[in-house]
Every structure is written in C-alpha cells, then in structure tokens.
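Quick one, tokens below:
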C-alpha cells in the first residue's frame, strides 16, 4: 500500500481543551487562556502535537461559546487577544499548534450583524441570515424543530419575519448563499491564520450547504461547492490541519470531504460509532446497552473506507459526549485498566487520535441529583420539554447523568485540594467529588497511571510508521468481548488485542494471526507472544510488534 506524503498531523495526537473547565487563573470560577498557558507543560509532557481549543471568541455564552458575537475577539472571561497570542507562541515553543474552533453555521443573536439584521431589512447584514414569512395565521413558516428543542423559527416584529435557528434562538443560522457573508468568513479565517494558528475544527460543517425550502439541512446541495471555495480562499498552500464535525457523513460520503482529489478538509469527525449506542427513537438520553460487535463493525468499516485515501480521526470523547471510561469502560473497580484498554484500542488504529481533557487521567462521569446542578443548554431545554411530556425528573436525570453533555464539562481535576485545583473561586459547574482520588497530581505520580499509558501511546505513534500508515485488518470481528486487529506495513506486523469487558475472556487467535516479538504496550503484564487460545484478564490490552 503506498504511504501518503507525510503530514505533521499523521504523527501528532490532538488534545481538546474546553476552556471554561480547564484552568481558572483569576478566581472567577471560569477557566481562561492564562490558565491554559500555565498548564502547557502538562500537555508537552503528554506529548501531544496540537490543541483543539473549543471556542474562546467573544460570546454571550448561551451555548458556552458556540454562539459567537465577535469572530475577531476573545471573550473577556477567557482573556484578551494578547493572551491568545501568548498562548500560540508558548505552545509553539513546546511544539504544540493551536487549532481553533470555527463556528460558522450560526452566530450569536448578539453579533452586530444580527443586531443590524433584525432592526432593518434594508441593511446588508439582513441577508447574512435566513428569513421567511409567517404562514397566513401568523405561525412559523413550517413545523421544523430546533436540535435543542422547540421551533426552529423565531419571529422578529421589527422586520415582520421569522429567522431560522437550527440550534437555540440565540444561535441564528448564517446565510451561506450570500457571497458577501462567505467572504467575511474567509477573511476572518485568514486573519486567524495570520496570527499563527495551526488549523480549524469546523463545527457542524455539514449544515452550511442547506437548502432551506427543501427542508434539507445536512449535507445540502451547496456544501461541497462552499467548502471548495473556502479551501481556495483560505486553506490552499497552508500547512494546517482541518477537521470537520459531521453527524451525517457516512463511509460513502467521507471522501467527498477528505479524499485527495477533493482535498477540502484533512479529516472529519464522524459519529457512527457513537450513535450506534443510542436508542433509535429516544436518542442519547435513553442509551442502548453497549454492543461490541456493532461498535467494531462501524470503526473497522471506517478504517477500511479510508485505507487508501482520506484520513480518520480517532476519538471516543469530546465536550458533547459522556466520559469514555464511564460510557465504554468501567469507572469502578477497573477504572485505570479500562481507561488504558480503550486508549490502546483507539490509538493504535490508523488516523489522528484526539484526547479530551481529563481523559488522560481517566476522569469519569459525574452524578448530579437535581436539575439545578446542570448547566448545558441542551439538557435544560430537553428537561423542560420532557417534563411537559410527563417524563419523571428521576428518569430524565438518570439519562442526563449517563449521556448528557455536562459530564465532560465538569472542571479538570488537577489536585485533591479545594475545587480540584481548578479555581480559587466558585466553579461555574460543580467539581466531581471524586477528585479526591482522581486527579492529575496523583495519576502522574504513579508510573502505572493512565497518563503514563497515554504518553507511551502518543510516543509510539511518533516513532513507528506502522502505527501511522500500516494497513488494518480486523481479527474475529464478531467476538462479543474482544477487539483485535492487525496492522501491517512493508512486511512488519503489529497485533493489538483488547478485552473490552470486566470478565476474563478466552480468545482463540487464528493461527495466521499469531505474533511473537516485542510487547509495545500493555496494561497488565508483558506478552511477547500471542498464539492459540489466549486467556485474557478483565480489560487486558496489549500490542505485540513482530520480531
Ligand atoms: C456542535 C458543538 O460541538 C456543540 O457543543 C454545539 O452545541 C453545537 N455544535 C452548536 O454549535
């Protein structure tokens, strides 16, 4: 298999920072950029190559920054542009690039564009947004619903029209059909590149090409022309990383984004392996029991689909998802071992791994008891809706504790001290009480801690071409407990075996897959040979590189 030209992000591992919850330097209870700068050595020690920084732009914070009111400034609670420039240069000095979040399907309703647009239909900014007339009875143009609940249209009496918002009313959708709007976005992206950023993660990017009147939001007819134009105007010729968030991309459409021919983006965040665990009717708040064969089928299909062209992103966690050790692993007895097992399974596939803050020490979900402890706009809106439908508060809170977005957003646990060392003040959301045991200081002090395991995986990716570019072949895909695969490059082989369960597992390795050589990594005990029937410990994971 031909090895593609080496890009810096082939060997790099990403690390997502949710700024609000990472480190607070000034005691206001909200994380900030100086706080991030103060922790750069932690990230450099981990070995990551870039940070994906969730939005730090000026914002009323209706959706914690995914509602931007000034694309060229920093939210005061996060710091200043000077702080941001310092972050870029201090990170660069440690070999770390800063990847910004590009949130351009919608702006904030407090953006000056929208304030002008809603005051006066004659203003040019009016057509930066999507407006439609009321139905004859005054009701919204149609019945479409917003992703966070409620109607997707809100009435503005000053202009006598409804505007579209696929998320909350505080997030009006931008009108990408308007070339002037697109030019504004391109200029803004170039402005950030000139400040030295290393790329963009693109929020819900598959929504920008929507055909509103056809009711087609995702993967709309204009999506790829807009992305090609964006590439020409901003990305071409720059050595940066782009990753587009898409809940709708499939293995059949992925190469339209990241195939060499099109080259619009470097990779996508796809969610098939996440959605696989959701109830088809009730969604994520009523999760299905984990189904390992289905999970493997999805991930291996993506590996296969992008084997020769395109590139995968590898992740189980982000700021919208529950903590991975709680969701897929065991956050009790086998917390440390299962956190390492999950990381081993993900990091040794082909693609660019993304670590979500706290994952590197095995942080877990939190358990809130009352709705007033939650902060997430989606959870709060759904709560109101589901209460009106007669769902019991207990059932709702159980669902939110299992799969809600606030799990990932409780503060980073640095120490066992007050507020986990996150802030000297009162945190904007409660710290998980388990910070007494689970914190950076304790985990890093343990040579067998989760951090040390992540460090090793991240280093192996940099060192070994077989991890970056080797082909991947699933082994015993239907096995209900074990995830196993082989990587191969230029005749060299790497065998990866992970017991995805808290029970011992007997695993019959087909003779052709037997492997002996160097144990690259393990979370239990060294194995230098795997042959025949393997008796695996609960959550045991190892990788052997043949001699
Ligand atoms: C996806 C982001 O990851 C999420 O946090 C946000 O609420 C929506 N897009 C809307 O921007």
């Amino acid at each position: 298999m031909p090895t593609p030209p080496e890009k810096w992000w082939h060997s790099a591992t990403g690390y997502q920072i949710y700024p609000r919850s990472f480190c607070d330097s000034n005691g206001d209870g909200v994380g900030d950029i100086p706080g991030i700068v103060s922790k750069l050595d932690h990230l450099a020690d981990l070995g990551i190559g870039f940070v994906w920084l969730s939005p730090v732009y000026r914002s009323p914070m209706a959706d914690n920054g995914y509602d931007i009111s000034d694309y060229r400034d920093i939210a005061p609670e996060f710091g200043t542009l000077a702080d941001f420039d310092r972050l870029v240069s201090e990170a660069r000095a440690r070999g770390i690039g800063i990847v910004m979040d590009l949130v351009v399907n919608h702006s904030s309703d407090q953006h000056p564009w929208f304030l002008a647009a809603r005051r006066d239909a004659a203003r040019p900014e009016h057509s930066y947004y999507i407006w439609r007339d009321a139905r004859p009875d005054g009701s919204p143009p149609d019945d479409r619903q917003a992703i966070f609940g409620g109607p997707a249209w809100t009435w503005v009496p000053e202009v006598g029209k409804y505007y579209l918002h696929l998320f909350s009313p505080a997030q009006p959708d931008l009108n990408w059909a308007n070339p002037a709007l697109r030019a504004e976005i391109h200029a803004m992206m170039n402005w950030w590149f000139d400040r030295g950023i290393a790329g963009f993660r693109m929020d819900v990017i598959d929504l920008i090409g929507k055909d509103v009147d056809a009711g087609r939001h995702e993967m709309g007819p204009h999506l790829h022309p807009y992305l090609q134009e964006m590439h020409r105007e901003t990305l071409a010729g720059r050595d940066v990383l782009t990753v587009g968030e898409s809940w709708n991309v499939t293995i059949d459409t992925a190469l339209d984004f990241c195939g060499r021919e099109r080259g619009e983006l470097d990779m996508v965040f796809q969610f098939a392996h996440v959605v696989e665990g959701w109830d088809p009717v009730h969604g994520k708040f009523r999760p299905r029991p984990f189904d390992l064969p289905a999970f493997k089928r999805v991930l291996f299909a993506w590996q296969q689909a992008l084997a020769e062209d395109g590139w995968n992103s590898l992740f189980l966690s982000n700021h919208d998802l529950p903590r991975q050790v709680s969701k897929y692993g065991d956050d009790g007895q086998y917390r440390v071992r299962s956190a390492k097992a999950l990381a081993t399974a993900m990091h040794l596939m082909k693609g660019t791994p993304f670590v979500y803050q706290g994952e590197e020490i095995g942080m877990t979900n939190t358990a809130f008891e009352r709705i007033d402890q939650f902060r997430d706009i989606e959870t709060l809106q759904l709560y109101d809706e589901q209460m009106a439908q007669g769902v019991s508060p207990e059932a709702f809170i159980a669902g939110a504790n299992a799969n809600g977005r606030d799990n990932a957003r409780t503060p980073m646990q640095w120490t066992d001290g007050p507020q986990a060392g996150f802030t000297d003040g009162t945190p904007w959301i409660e710290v998980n009480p388990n910070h007494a045991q689970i914190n950076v200081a304790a985990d890093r002090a343990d040579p067998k801690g989760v951090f040390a395991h992540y460090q090793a995986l991240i280093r192996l990716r940099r060192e070994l071409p077989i991890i970056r570019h080797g082909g991947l072949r699933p082994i015993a895909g239907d096995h209900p407990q074990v995830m196993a695969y082989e990587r191969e490059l230029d005749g060299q082989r790497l065998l990866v075996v992970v017991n995805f369960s808290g029970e011992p597992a007997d695993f019959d390795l087909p003779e052709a897959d037997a492997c002996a050589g160097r144990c690259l990594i393990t979370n239990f005990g060294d194995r230098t040979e795997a042959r025949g029937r393997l008796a695996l410990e609960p959550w045991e994971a190892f990788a052997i590189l043949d001699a």
